[in-house]
Amino acid sequence: MTNTWLIILLVLGVTIAAIATFILLRLLKMKESETQRGPAVELKMNALKIILPLKVQAYERFLLYLERVQLPVLVKRVYVPGIEKDAFHLQLLQNVREEFEHNLAQQLYVSQSTWNAVKNAKEELVNQINSTFEQLKEEDVAILAQTLVALPNPSVEQAVAILKRDFERLL
After folding, report:
1. Average pLDDT over all residues of the chain
2. With bands split at pLDDT 50, 70 and 90, how would you rate the model's confidence at 27?
3. Is 154 left (phi over 0), alpha (psi -120 to 50) or beta?
4. Burial letters for 18-27: b for 16+ Cβ neighbours within 10 Å, e otherwise?
5. pTM
6. What digits encode the pLDDT tens for the residues 104-157?
7. Side-chain half-sphere of 144: how many Cα atoms within 13 Å?
8. 95 near 77, Cβ under 8 Å?
9. How many CA atoms lie within 13 A of 29 on its CB side?
């Protein structure tokens, strides 16, 4: 009977030691997993600290672009008394395109819907300018300028609304 008790105690001791070893290994593995995850989370937080200001800047720059290419602002900036019709037309288009190209890289930091809205606003604005010059055979550039200033810019207004909405989602 003593041998039986000895065997039971021995098996019990080995079992307890195995369970303790298993629990200790699980705890070590969990700690190692947390340690490995820690730098990844920290890296992601650091990336967010760098990228968030760039995203904010991109939204600001696109908003500024849209404000600068609204027809009343654009005409005021480009029109000078005595400018020829073709030169006025060219400078309007060139101004819209240069402003757009200057901000082209900002598309990396905004949503696809914002980028599409800005791009569509630019294309619609170019079409609007071209069609105004084609439809009005007016040689008096001052009248053309007044006509352009009076035109609505729904695509620019829509792009501004989308930009603001997406920016609010960002924050």
Report:
1. 87
2. confident
3. alpha
4. eeeeeeeeee
5. 0.72
6. 999 999 999 999 999 999 999 999 999 999 998 878 899 999 999 999 999 999
7. 28
8. yes
9. 6
CA distance 114 to 117: 5
Dihedral sign for Cα atoms in the order 106, 55, 157, 149? negative
C-alpha to C-alpha distances, 92 to 15, 25, 82, nearest whole angstrom: 85, 71, 15
Q: Mapping DSSP to helix (H, G, I), strand (E, B) and coil, where does residue 153 land?
A: coil
The token duo for 71 is: 């027809």
Per the listing, tokens 């599409």 go with 116
CB 59 within 8 A of CB 163: yes
| Pairwise CA distance, residues 34 & 19, whole Å | 23
Biggest CA pair distance of the chain? 121
In the chain, the amino acid numbered 58 is A
